[in-house]
Structures are given as structure tokens and as C-alpha cells.
Amino acid sequence: QVQLAESGGGLAQAGGSLRLSCAVSGSFDSIDAMSWYRQAPAKQRELVATITSDGSINYTDAVKGRFTISRDNAKNTSDLQMNSLKPEDTAVYYCKAIVQFRPRLYQYWGQGTQVTVSS
């Protein structure tokens, strides 16, 4: 059973910072990509950032230069450092992991953590 546990959400003022963490637990061969998504009220879930097992990173344009994704392959964790927060960053943030059970890949989601940015 693979589980993802997110932490670090909360309330921040505009211009402030928050750091989200995601820990993957369970028995599997490896973790391929880890991603952070967010879903604001009445909006579709959107991809925020992805980091692959070899360290390749992509961000959605809205967070480039403000958010930083990282991962620790030894600990099976990923962090999302969010700086210069804006009210429009308010959303539930979800961690997703692509996990390998050779030869197949499966995706798993965390339960989500609320981020609220006040103006």
C-alpha cells in the first residue's frame, strides 16, 4: 500500500512564504516523477510543478520564479517552497507520485493541504 502524506499548508499573507512537504511510504521499486497540483474553489485541478527522478523540473508559468520544487530520493520526499505568495495561490495543494512496480507505473495522490493567502 502506497501512501502520500502532505504537510505544511496554512495561512500566509501576500508576499509571504510557505513550504509544503510530501512523504511517500510503502513498498515499491522506485518513484518516477513527483508533482504538485492545486485546485482552487470552482476551478479545475492544475499542475504546479514536476520533478523527475533525474532532477528535471518544470513549473507552470504562474509560479515560475516564486516556487521551487525539490525531492530527496533517499527519503522519498518532495518539497514545494512557495515564496512571494499571492492571493491567487489560494487552493488545496495535492502531491502526486508516479510509482514503479516493475514493469508498470502507477500514480498515487495525497489527501491535499489547504493554502490560503490573504491580501
Q: Which key features would you list for this structure?
A:
elongated, 60% strand, 0% helix, four-stranded antiparallel beta sheet, 119 residues, seven-stranded mixed beta sheet
What's the topology here?
Layout: E1 3-7, E2 10-13, E3 18-25, E4 30-39, E5 46-51, E6 57-59, E7 67-72, E8 77-82, E9 91-101, E10 104-109, E11 113-118
Parallel strand pairs: 2-11
Antiparallel strand pairs: 1-3, 3-8, 4-5, 4-9, 5-6, 7-8, 9-10, 9-11
The major sheet is characterized as: 7 strands, mixed
End-to-end distance: 40 Å
Q: Can you write the helix and strand succession as a string?
A: EEEEEEEEEEE
Gyration radius (Cα, Å) is 14 Å
Which whole number gives the mean pLDDT? 97
Helix content: under 10%
What proportion of the residues form beta strands (DSSP E)? over 45%
Q: Would you write up a description of this structure?
A:
The protein has 119 residues and is mostly beta strands. The protein is built from no helices and eleven strands.
Put the structure in a nutshell.
This protein is an all-beta fold. The protein has no helices and eleven strands.
